[in-house]
Amino acid sequence: MSRKSKKRSVRDVLVALLMAISPLIAALGLTGTSATTASAASLTEVTNFGSNPGNLRMYVYKPDSAPARPAVLVAVHYCTGTGPTFYSNTEFARLADQHGFIVVYPDANVSGQCFDVSSPQALKHDGGSDPTSIAQMVRYTVQNMNADAGRVYVTGASSGAMTTNVMLGAYPDLFKAGAAFSGVPFGCFATTDGSGWNSDCATGKISKTPQEWGDLVRNAYPGYTGPRPRMQLWHGTEDDALYYANFGEEIKQWTNVLGVSQTPVFTDSPQSNWTRTRYGSAGAQAPVEANSFQGVGHSLPESGMAARAIAFFGLDGSGGTTTGPVRATGSGKCLDVPGFSQTNGTQTQIWDC
After folding, report:
1. What is the mean pLDDT of residues 36-62?
2. For residue 349, what are the domain limits?
3. How many domains does the chain have?
């Protein structure tokens, strides 16, 4: 069944999802900053960027401040959204003006404006559908805009967050890190009947072991032995579109993929309803960071969160790689500084590597 001829029930579900994410759309409109007021640069559509099995559109924002070899951020919109809307109503373009990276905005050019994260083609490296189109956008940007292939990142909200999980899982060779705002694990939304919607996943009914989740990612690109991208996760406890249970499943998946313990090495509360945990390192660019918001629904990112994602990537000038803790070869213990704090007198942590 083609993606343009989905069953009526799927369209009904998409309508319900639209109702669920309306607070997100409103929040983005209130908190976003249009980059057009901050720079002479403008959003540009790119055509003929390579094979495009998902029939997506590609928009690029390259700020005037971009250096000779800029980093790249792929910013993926939610269902019912568009690339230009995500550009105008989120903070990524303004941050690009500030820090000099390119932003690529894929556009799901189909009814419902959701990205394919369900089909077997989407869940395989260069298998086809939307993820392959997005991968081609990245390759085009690197080859034709002199971008730095070693500093490519991806983020997204809702359908875009699910796509972020898929891109990190199927294309670890292209991305260094991702930030998923209200998503689900790689492979959770998988279907084989041509449907683009998986209700069991959306409602948090699918649970797997860390190994099972990790195997789904590893099997997406058989034979790949290179480094795996880091992951930053964001979710509200009252999410009624993509239930909060998916947050825990994402943590299980990415800690397994990155080979770190499910027990956090750092936990804090940046604000009253916010719990932040880091896995594998206490630093601000840990292998996995998870951010949970008590009482918050399907309305992320909120104002200021995009900047924290940029910091996690290292695009704010703090560096895009994880050097990790100091390791003692004799004892096997690691020494780390909580939160990469530079405050005099900060107590270091010693823990099992």
Report:
1. 87
2. 326-353
3. 2
Q: Characterize the bridge pairing of strands 230-236 and 266-268.
A: unpaired
| pTM to 2 decimal places | 0.82
- pLDDT score recorded for residue 337: 53
Cα 46-52-55 angle, rounded to 5 deg: 85
Cis preceding linkage at 301, omega within 30: yes
**For the segment 325-344, what is each residue's pLDDT rounded down to a tens digit?**
444 434 555 555 554 444 44
Supply the CATH number for residue 36's domain.
3.40.50.1820
- In the residue annotation, 158 being an active-site residue is answered as yes
SS (H, E, C) 286-320: CCEEEEEECCCCCCCCCCCHHHHHHHHHCCCCCCC
Looking at 158, 159, 182, 281, which residue is catalytic? 158
Reading phi first (left if > 0) and then psi (alpha if -120 to 50, else beta), residue 46 is in beta
Q: Could you tell me the two tokens for 267?
A: 């936990």
Residue 185 has pLDDT above 70, yes or no: yes
